[in-house]
Structures are given as structure tokens and as C-alpha cells.
Design goal:
Blueprint lengths: L3 E5 L5 H13 L2 E4 L19 H4 L21 E6 L8 H8 L7 E6 L16 E2 L3 E2 L5 H10 L2
Parallel strand pairs: 1-2, 1-3, 3-4, 4-5, 4-6
């Protein structure tokens, strides 16, 4: 039997809400990707060229994650949720993916703001990536369709 995980990073709480609903709809376990150094309001100020979120646009940046999902090997499908920063996933998502051997697993990205969910594949070689979608404000019906399309 296939087992799923919804792993998410949420800076403001929006992604957390969607991830919780998605986990319920998918019958999946839930894991929060917590940064080792929490983000402050100043860190998230995208209008400040020196803010942490702006500096972390560098594709080589890998913010540390506070803890690992100890039972990643148990999952066949990993939904990975995040806000979009500068049109892409925050680099903490790359950090999260790079911690594990995801060979043979299905990774299903979802975002909670506009932008692209692409360009994560190099962080999880051997995994099969779904196209992903933007799920901000998604109804249960949309979440159910998303889960079914990615089963």
C-alpha cells in the first residue's frame, strides 16, 4: 500500500493551512520543514535588497533545516509545499530535498503563490517529479482532484 507525506515550509502560515488540508484529503502524514534559524519579519521583507529572503535568491544558498523527517524511507509519494519567493521555491526546499535519497519516490510540488514549481529536480536525483500546481485558497474538491491526478 502506498504511503504519502505532505512536507511543507510556511513563512507566514498560508502554506501551513493548505498543507494541513491536503494531508487530510490525501490521508497523508504531515511534516513541517522548519528552518534552523527562524525567519523574522525583516528577513521576509522582499523590498529590502539586504533581507535574508532576497539574499537567499542565490541558487547555491542552502539554509539549514532544524530537523529531518526520520521515516522518509516509508513514503512513496512526497508532496512538497512552499510559498514562492522571487518566482521560485525558497532554497530551503532544495536543502530539504537534498537531505534524503528520494530515488524511486514521486515528488509532487505545490506552491501557495504564483510562480513556478519547476527547477527542484536537481535536488532530488532519481525521484520522479510531478508538474505540481499552485494551491493557494484551494477548495477540498480541487485538493481531491490534485491528489487523484498525482496518485
Amino acid at each position: 500500500m502506498s504511503k504519502s507525506l505532505v512536507a511543507y515550509f510556511s513563512a507566514s502560515g498560508s502554506t501551513r493551512k493548505v498543507a494541513q488540508c491536503l494531508a487530510k484529503v490525501a490521508g497523508a502524514d504531515l511534516f513541517e520543514i522548519v528552518p534552523e534559524q527562524p525567519y523574522t519579519a525583516a528577513d521576509l521583507d522582499w523590498t529590502d535588497r539586504n533581507s535574508r529572503s532576497t539574499r537567499e535568491r542565490d541558487p547555491k544558498c542552502r539554509p539549514a533545516v532544524a530537523s529531518a523527517c526520520e521515516n522518509m524511507a516509508d513514503y512513496d509519494t512526497v508532496y512538497v509545499g512552499f510559498p514562492i519567493w522571487w518566482y521560485v521555491a525558497p532554497t530551503i526546499i532544495n536543502t530539504f530535498l537534498e537531505v534524503y535519497d528520494l530515488t524511486g519516490k514521486r515528488v509532487v510540488p505545490f506552491a501557495t503563490s504564483g510562480g513556478t514549481v519547476a527547477a527542484l529536480e536537481p535536488s532530488a536525483p532519481g525521484a520522479t517529479f510531478a508538474a505540481g500546481d499552485v494551491l493557494n485558497g484551494a477548495s477540498d474538491a480541487k485538493l481531491e482532484a490534485f491528489v487523484k491526478a498525482n496518485a
